[in-house]
């Protein structure tokens, strides 16, 4: 897990990669559409996407001659949350409160998050 967390924090270290993640929050984008949002060259954006993919933060799929990128579920939130819970006691308390609320909602037959 330590290597995975290190990869994630390394991926987050560059502002371009953070912006790419923000751009992908609303859904999948083609590599060319991502590159068009930046002044950097296509190969530079491709390297940034490779770092994000290696960290497990984005996935790619091919659609004919296009490569489409999307976020990987909750990977970022879970990894950063796990790290924060080790260094920030408040995170541990908040996580336990969420678990109790989720369990109560599940036991009561309510939709989770209601």
Automatic annotation (TrEMBL):
The answer to whether UniProt assigns keyword Protein biosynthesis to this entry is no
Q: Superkingdom of the source?
A: Bacteria
Supply the InterPro entries for this chain.
ArsR-like_HTH, HTH_ArsR_DNA-bd_dom, HTH_MetalResp_TranReg, WH-like_DNA-bd_sf, WH_DNA-bd_sf
Work out whether the entry's keyword set contains Transport.
Answer: no
Q: Please give the Pfam families that the UniProt record associates with this protein.
A: HTH_20
Which species expresses this protein natively?
Herbiconiux aconitum
**Keyword annotations:** DNA-binding, Transcription, Transcription regulation
Q: What is this protein called?
A: Metalloregulator ArsR/SmtB family transcription factor
Q: Which SMART domains match?
A: HTH_ARSR (SM00418)
What PROSITE patterns would the database entry show? HTH_ARSR_2
HTH arsR-type domain segment(s): 1-91
Q: Which SUPFAM superfamilies match?
A: Winged helix' DNA-binding domain
